[in-house]
Inverse folding.
């Protein structure tokens, strides 16, 4: 019988510096999985390591190894850390709780940013790595396949992953709703601060035709322009660049608006009223509010973008309940499926063994008797068969009807194995799903 | 127009069923907003294709009954053909490079056209005169042009909604983005295409008048007939809309509004042809 457990820490239990020290690169993960497999025989393992969590999913024999303390020691040794440094930050879950945790992780219900999309790919990647290292077995194969399916279903059937959750990505979304093709567009960044760089990086990913960084400090402008293969420009050329730009990102530290309605009206006339997208992320604002009223000018300030982010987060929180219900359904399904998968072969084996013993004893008894006809023999065989079936009926029924809530499934089945000595030649559960 | 022989009840039933299929498809497509899912999306698409099949079946049936294959021989056929052209175009765009929500703007026009086809089929079939080459070209180009203007109007309306949402800074969903630039390009393309066809329609109409003199249905004072005046107005509106890339003043929302106004005028022209008194 296999027992599932997960041991790990995440952004809720451990600070970033600790998570960084415990994180595994793909190569390190492969080595760790091989080392774990070598140390603990017949143990399955998947190691999920992201910037927000390090989790080790393990399936082992019910009373076998590794225990969760051994897994914690293994992590400490592997990452060359003292166990005391992170032991209190660890959580461990078993059986149904472990399944529920993995499904929630894959569904991005346990992520720092609710509904983020990366985690599903990371879960899949962790599973693929375990497959490659040969540490995923009959328990973890179906578990992780189901986890990925749950993640996909939630993405398709709920709004958990909808919308953008950063100002830069919201700006990109709005840009894509104004322009279709970016290769013939000009992006102008006025200011060269951190925030401008972040938004510029997101917009630069759209591969615009040209990119200009306009800043009072020429060196800063050149440095930022260099990062995105753009060209620097001085403030004196601003009116010309405004007329040429299709997307303007502005983030200077100016006290007053540096772009007024009059200035923009000239620019929009010069650009023959082609639409222009203005992202004003400066506080105080760089662009006068009435610029947004000009035809074909789409002006968004930091508040507008932040509101879109907040709206997305609110929407995701509302969708989380629906996602949790889907996770719960899948956890129940998986538990039922796993229970049937483990129980079936065990019950079969119990029946076979009991009937074989009964037949053996019957044969011995019949051999001692004289004058037993074929008819008598058939009657006796039928009698022993019925006795065995009746003896086994109640315990098996109880086993089948038992609620996993009362006793962990694997422990129950393990007890049956022990009591009826089915361990040595027990039928193995079916292979990979 | 020659003696009227209307569409039979079966053909009208098929056209109404097509309108129903488009309506149902639109409803299901709108339901995807609340319950996004591939099954619903697929059902909505299937309903639209089913509607096109029903409409085509009605036209084929009509052709078989008449014994001639060229559509556009009466009001019922002309309107149903126009609706199917528009529906076909919508489905083509949604297949080639989808514009989420395009069907919500174009399918209502298709449904109205199909309902008009059914009503005209019952009350005003108006079989057209036997077609010569000028007639045929005139009808085909005018109706195809109208379908293109229908597309321009639908996409123009979509542009206005999208632009208003962006100005309102409305939250954006997760679906594939539809940019104003793409909508504007599509409107421009549809207007260009429709304008070329309308020009052919007007020229061939004039050629017909020149050929027959005062014996056309428009009579000797054809130049002042509502049909000619409206057709020319439509031509002027679209000529302006067509020049948006070089006429900055009518860019964006104004261009979208012009394409809607043009389509309304085009519909008015059609109504003028059907119902306004003309000299004979």
């Amino acid at each position: 019988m296999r027992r599932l457990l997960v041991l790990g820490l995440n952004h809720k239990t451990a600070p970033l510096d600790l998570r960084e020290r415990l994180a595994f690169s793909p190569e390190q993960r492969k080595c760790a999985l091989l080392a774990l497999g070598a140390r603990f025989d017949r143990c399955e393992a998947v190691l999920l390591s992201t910037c927000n969590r390090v989790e080790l999913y393990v399936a082992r024999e019910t009373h076998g190894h590794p225990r969760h303390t051994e897994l914690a020691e293994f992590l400490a040794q592997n990452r060359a850390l003292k166990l005391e440094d992170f032991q209190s930050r660890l959580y461990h879950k078993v059986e149904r709780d472990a399944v529920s945790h993995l499904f929630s992780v894959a569904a991005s219900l346990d992520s720092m940013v609710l509904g983020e999309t990366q985690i599903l790919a990371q879960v899949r990647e962790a599973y693929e790595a375990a497959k490659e290292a040969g540490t995923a077995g009959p328990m973890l194969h179906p578990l992780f396949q189901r986890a990925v399916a749950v993640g996909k279903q939630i993405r398709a059937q709920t709004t958990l992953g909808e919308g953008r959750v950063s100002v830069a990505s919201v700006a990109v979304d709005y840009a894509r709703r104004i322009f279709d093709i970016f290769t013939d567009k000009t992006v102008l960044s006025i200011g060269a601060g951190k925030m401008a760089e972040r938004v510029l990086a997101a917009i630069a990913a759209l591969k615009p035709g040209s990119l200009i960084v306009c800043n009072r400090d020429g060196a800063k402008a050149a440095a930022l322009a260099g990062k995105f293969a753009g060209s620097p420009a001085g403030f004196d050329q601003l009116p010309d660049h405004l007329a040429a730009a299709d997307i303007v990102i502005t983030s200077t530290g100016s006290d007053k608006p540096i772009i007024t309605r009059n200035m923009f009206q000239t620019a929009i006339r010069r650009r023959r009223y082609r639409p222009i997208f203005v992202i004003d992320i400066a506080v105080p604002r760089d662009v006068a509010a009435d610029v947004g009223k000009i035809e074909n000018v789409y002006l968004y300030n930091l508040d507008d973008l932040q509101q879109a982010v907040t709206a997305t987060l609110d929407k995701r929180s509302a969708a989380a309940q629906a996602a949790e219900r889907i996770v719960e359904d899948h956890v129940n399904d998986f538990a039922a499926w796993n229970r049937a998968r483990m129980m079936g072969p065990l019950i079969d084996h119990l029946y076979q063994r009991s009937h074989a013993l009964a037949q053996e004893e019957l044969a011995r008894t019949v051999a001692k008797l004289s004058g037993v006809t074929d008819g008598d023999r058939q009657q006796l065989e039928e009698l022993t068969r019925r006795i065995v079936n009746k003896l086994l009926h109640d315990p098996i029924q109880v086993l089948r009807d038992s609620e996993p809530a009362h006793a962990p499934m694997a422990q129950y089945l393990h007890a049956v194995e022990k009591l009826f000595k089915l361990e040595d030649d027990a039928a193995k559960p079916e292979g990979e799903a | 127009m020659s003696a009227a022989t209307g569409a039979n009840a079966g053909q009208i039933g098929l056209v109404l069923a097509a309108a129903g299929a488009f309506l149902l498809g639109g409803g299901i497509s709108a339901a995807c907003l609340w319950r996004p899912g591939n099954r619903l999306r697929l059902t909505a698409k299937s309903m639209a294709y089913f509607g096109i099949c029903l409409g085509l079946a009605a036209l084929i049936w009509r052709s078989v009954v008449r014994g001639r294959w060229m559509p556009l021989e009466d009001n019922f056929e002309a309107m149903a053909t126009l609706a199917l052209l528009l529906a076909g175009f919508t489905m083509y765009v949604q297949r080639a490079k989808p514009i989420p929500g395009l069907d919500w703007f174009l399918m209502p026009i298709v449904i109205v056209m199909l309902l008009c086809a059914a009503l005209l089929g019952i009350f005003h079939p108006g079989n057209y005169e036997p077609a010569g080459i000028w007639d045929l070209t005139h009808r085909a180009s005018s109706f195809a042009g109208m379908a293109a203007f229908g597309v321009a109007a639908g996409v123009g309306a979509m542009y206005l909604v999208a632009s208003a949402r962006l100005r309102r800074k409305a939250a954006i969903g997760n679906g594939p983005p539809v940019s104003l630039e793409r909508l504007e390009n599509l409107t421009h393309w549809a207007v260009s295409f429709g304008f070329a066809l309308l020009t052919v329609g007007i020229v061939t109409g004039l050629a017909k008048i020149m050929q027959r003199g005062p014996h056309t249905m428009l009579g000797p004072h054809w130049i002042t007939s509502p049909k000619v005046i409206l057709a020319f107005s439509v031509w002027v509106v679209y000529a302006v809309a067509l020049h948006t890339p070089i006429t900055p003043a009518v860019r964006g929302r104004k261009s979208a509004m012009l394409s809607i106004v043009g389509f309304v005028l085009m519909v008015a022209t059609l109504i003028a042809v059907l119902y306004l008194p003309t000299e004979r």
Observations:
- Chain A has three domains: 2-157, 167-309, 339-419.
- Residues 426-433 of chain A have pLDDT under 50 and may be disordered.
